[in-house]
Write a structure and sequence with these properties.
The chain starts with a strand and ends in a 7-residue tail after the last helix. It has a 5-stranded mixed beta barrel. The protein has helices at 13-18, 36-47, 90-95, 109-117, 130-134, 174-177, and strands at residues 5-8, 24-33, 60-62, 100-103, 121-124, 137-144, 153-167. The protein contains 6 helices and 7 strands. By secondary structure, the protein is α/β, with parallel strands linked by helices. The protein is globular, with a radius of gyration of 15 Å.
Length: 184
């Protein structure tokens, strides 16, 4: 089994283009968690050329919303949500400097084209492992849209957050390349 590549945030273009589809990574640093309701609000601000609640440059957004935090923990269970729900917003966020997304499932052709154009990366996190993923979250705070509850924007400090490079900056896509290997 391949050893995981350790990466730290924020990401820059040099780091991103070194990552290849299929690489296992462990992410350390600050990442943001946001689902479609928060993405919609950010998208509306971009359309109006207004100030965003977070600086997207070099950042990673985890498509997730945590469950309530139990005493003694930094975060409740937090697993990836289905990525296509953010597809209509993602190209605009990538244009503003977003360098990575963490989710599960397919992305649209428009998102993949935007990933290539903006030299970004899409990571997959394992669905169904929310309690395990939460162990990587060392600090958590709501930083915007508190009214959305679990769908607010959270800022997480993570250590060794496990993910897989699913779509790299050149557009190589594990969702396209891998299934044919197992359908013979």
């Amino acid at each position: 089994m391949k050893e995981a590549i350790k990466i730290t945030t924020p990401l820059d273009e040099r780091k991103v283009i070194q990552l290849k589809a299929g690489d296992l990574v462990k992410i350390t640093g600050y990442i943001y968690a946001a689902r479609d309701a928060a993405h919609r609000r950010i998208f509306e601000l971009i359309k109006k050329d207004q100030k965003l609640p977070i600086d997207l440059k070099g950042q990673i957004i985890f498509y997730a919303g945590p469950t309530p935090t139990k005493p003694g923990y930094s975060c409740g269970s937090v697993g990836p949500t289905t990525s296509y729900r953010m597809d209509s917003y993602t190209p605009s966020l990538l244009e503003k400097g977003l360098k990575g997304m963490i989710g599960k499932g397919f992305c649209s052709k428009e998102v993949i084209d935007s990933i290539k154009k903006n030299k970004a990366v899409y990571f997959a996190a394992v669905g169904g492992a929310a309690a395990l993923i939460a162990r990587s979250v060392k600090r958590s705070e709501v930083i915007a849209y508190k009214d959305l509850g679990a769908a607010a924007i959270y800022k997480f400090y993570v250590e060794d957050f496990p993910a897989i490079v699913c779509i790299d900056a050149k557009g190589k896509n594990l969702y396209e390349s891998e299934p044919p290997k197992y359908m013979k």
